[in-house]
Specification:
Helix content: over 70%
Structural class: mainly alpha
Largest sheet: none
Mean pLDDT: 88
Radius of gyration: 18 Å
Number of strands: 0
Number of helices: 10
Order of helices and strands: HHHHHHHHHH
Distance between the termini: 47 Å
Low-confidence stretches: none
């Protein structure tokens, strides 16, 4: 397995673990968009449908199951379990996700690759690629509206954005080495990365500011 891809997986895994750790330690879902988590749950459930058809090794199987279960668990906590349900900011998490889901369904039907397994699996995989590229939008809108850039939420989003950037590098390296690439993944990854640009700016600004504060206190 490519070390670049493994780095991307580590960042993705870290993002989920940071978010779960934040929620469990603080016993709060403040600043987290349930709408985004629901979209990611749809992404993983549709993309990893191949778990029922192919065995791709322990690593891939464990990672796929973890992403599905952990994301569904976060959704469960925020929707049904106290105190996370009570601390979820539903008044401000108002992004209408159907305006993301429906266009992605249409795009998947119109623009998809030649089926590797069957047309249904290919359409679901393609849909998941398109949807993942915009699934973070409700979270970004919530942060921009509330301006709650707390440290752990910021670290979660940074790892999530960095994972996609690293995966894009992996795909481009694969194209250089093997001469083949799935352009749907690259274009979707590029769109997703661009959505993080403003957040990355805020993240770096915060890190620099905190470093300066620690430096001033240490004087």
């Amino acid at each position: 397995m490519s070390m670049i891809r493994m780095l991307g997986d580590v960042l993705h895994l870290s993002a989920i673990l940071i978010l779960l750790s934040k929620m469990l330690r603080q016993r709060s879902a403040a600043g987290i968009s349930l709408k985004s988590m629901q979209l990611f749950a749809i992404v993983f459930c549709t993309r990893y449908i191949d778990l029922f058809f192919h065995y791709l090794g322990v690593y891939n199987t464990v990672m796929k199951i973890f992403f599905i279960i952990s994301t569904l668990h976060i959704c469960y906590l925020m929707r049904l379990k106290s105190p996370w349900k009570a601390t979820y900011d539903r008044e401000n998490d108002t992004f209408r996700i159907r305006y993301l889901i429906v266009p992605c369904v249409v795009l998947a039907i119109l623009l998809h690759s030649k089926p590797r397994v069957n047309i249904v699996v290919e359409l679901l995989w393609t849909f998941s690629q398109y949807l993942e590229s915009v699934a973070i939008l409700p979270q970004i809108f919530l942060l921009e509206y509330t301006e709650r850039y707390d440290a752990l939420t910021s670290h979660y989003l940074f790892c999530l954005g960095a994972y996609r950037v690293v995966y894009m590098v992996h795909w481009l390296v694969q194209f250089y080495v093997r001469g083949s690439i799935r352009w749907i993944s690259v274009i979707s990854g590029l769109v997703q990365s661009l959505l993080y640009v403003d957040f990355f700016y805020h993240y770096v600004t915060q890190v620099v500011r905190r470093a300066k504060q620690r430096y001033e206190l240490a004087k």
